[in-house]
Amino acid sequence: MRRIFLRATFTVLSMIWVWKSFERAEAALDAQVVTIGGEVRERYEFRDNADFNSNASDTLSFVGSRIRLHLGYEVTPDITFFFQIQDSRLFGSEVSTISNEKNLDLHQGYLKITNLAGPVTMILGRQEIFFGDHRLVGHLGWSNVGRSFDGLRLTYNPAPLRFDLWATVPKVFGTNTGADPAFTGSNRDAQQFYGLYTTVKARIVSLEPYVMYLRDTGPIGISQITDPLAPAQNRVTLGSRIDGKVVGQSIDFTGEVAYQTGSMNARGTTPKSDISAYALAIKTGYTFPVMFKPRVGFEYDRASGDDNSTDDEFKTFENLFHTNHLHYGYMDYMAWRNMQDLRVSLGIKPTKVSSISLDYHLFSLAEKRDNWYRASGQVFRTTPSTNNETDLGQEINLVAYTMLKEKLRLEAGYGHFFPGDYVKVNFPTATDDSDFLYLQATVSF
To answer: In this structure, are residues 184 and 165 in contact, taking their beta carbons and an 8 Å threshold?
Structure first.
């Protein structure tokens, strides 16, 4: 009887201790700021004749799944820790229903310190970095994985000015884990990406000059940033973007221009080939102040190409760490490299939380001797030396979305591509139209 009483007493006291400990922990959390959230995104995609050849068995149909969970913890009012994990997979891609393909990864994980020296913020670790329209630096949110950078970012924000300075390492070549003190030369080969992005905000316009520096010492065939893949590449990008709205915010406009200089591995007769490339984007639209807020928009994009693949000057513009999907057609046939795109847009907003848009693109090469580059920046079609055509084709995109139950976003899109004379003349056995369809559901919390 005594044992039973002692056990009961011990159990009650233990429960009280656990409850008090929980109360103390809860009080500690209340004293700080903890944020928990995430995103679940499921997307079905269908592609047919992506290579413009209806005789090839290349119909593609799949479901991509991306789940993100994040935790933010405010250690002090000026120090925050942020952690975001991500699972990315395709339905049925694993060996079996009981296998584990290790699709889980760290998407973001960083330490953030504000008021470091006045209005200076430092973010150190793996983080998303994006600026402007994501044409050169973007998070690539359309991708089932997305993009993040390992590095340091400093922000100095004395309003209305803002300066963002970053130093990142997108990729290290080699397999050294840090345990080898020798750390051989090949392990030091890396892509290094630095930049300064300035934002000056006025009442109706934002001016954003920038400078970016890419140093790529990776060997040929391993680098993923340029094509041709160039070791010992030093590329400086100087540019500026302007963005604003006028006439009661009915007219929107955006312009961006960039010039690239530097050097890369020898391609002609000299030890180093010079880089000289440019790109520009001009976009404007008018939103009618009536029901459904219809908008008509126009856009022109251009990026230089190379007119001679054997000389000592490399003129193909490099798209860097872009989010091309937002700009040059939802079918992802185009990059901001050796291209021209004339775009006409129509859109309406049936409700405050829904939208329907129709886009038309007319694509062509900027330089007929250079290649056709797809959205990833890699070569989609290698241009024959005898080519005299620049007309790549036309694309139509119809996209609609709506929000349901506050957190659920439903989206659907359709794209159709009509190959142009460049395809018909140079690749006469593959000239069929291409189709693309997607259905997407996203829950954010």
So the answer is: no
User: What is the DSSP pairing of strand 272-287 with strand 313-314?
Assistant: parallel
Cα(199)–Cα(210) distance, rounded to whole angstroms? 9
Rounded Cα distance between 432 and 51, Å, is 8
Nearest C-alpha neighbor of 361 from the set 338, 376, 339: 339
DSSP character for 371?
A: P
Smallest CA-to-CA distance from 137 within 165, 103, 161 is with 165
pLDDT digits (tens, 9 = 90+) for 294-332: 999 999 999 999 998 888 888 999 999 999 999 999 999
Beta-strand pair 60-76/33-48: antiparallel
Asked whether the predicted pLDDT for residue 126 surpasses 80, the reply is: yes
Q: What's the distance, CA 147 to chain centroid?
A: 6
Choose among 410, 394, 397: nearest CA to 443: 410
Coil, strand, or helix at residue 421?
A: helix
Q: Give the type of residue at 8.
A: A
On whether the CB atoms of residues 112 and 122 are closer than 8 A, the answer is yes
Closest CA to 241 of 298, 191, 201: 201
Number of residues in the chain:
445
pLDDT digits 0-9 by tens, 173-199: 655 555 444 444 455 567 899 999 999
If you classify domain 114-444 with CATH, what class do you get? mainly beta
Q: Give pLDDT, residue 11.
A: 47
From the list 88, 64, 77, the residue with the least C-alpha distance to 148 is 88
pTM of the model: 0.86
Average pLDDT of the residues in 256-273: 82
Q: Are 443 and 406 in contact (CB under 8 A)?
A: no
Q: 285 with 255: CB under 8 angstroms?
A: no
Going from N- to C-terminal start, the domains of the chain cover 114-444
Question: Cα separation of 47 and 436, whole Å?
Answer: 5
Do 294 and 252 touch, CB atoms closer than 8 A? no
Position with higher pLDDT, 7 vs 368: 368
Give strand ranges (E) for 97-250.
104-113, 120-127, 149-156, 161-172, 190-201, 205-216, 233-246
> What are the structure tokens assigned to 55, written together?
């005789």
Task: Give strand pairing partners of 272.
Answer: 265
Query: Are 363 and 336 within 8 A, CB to CB?
Result: no
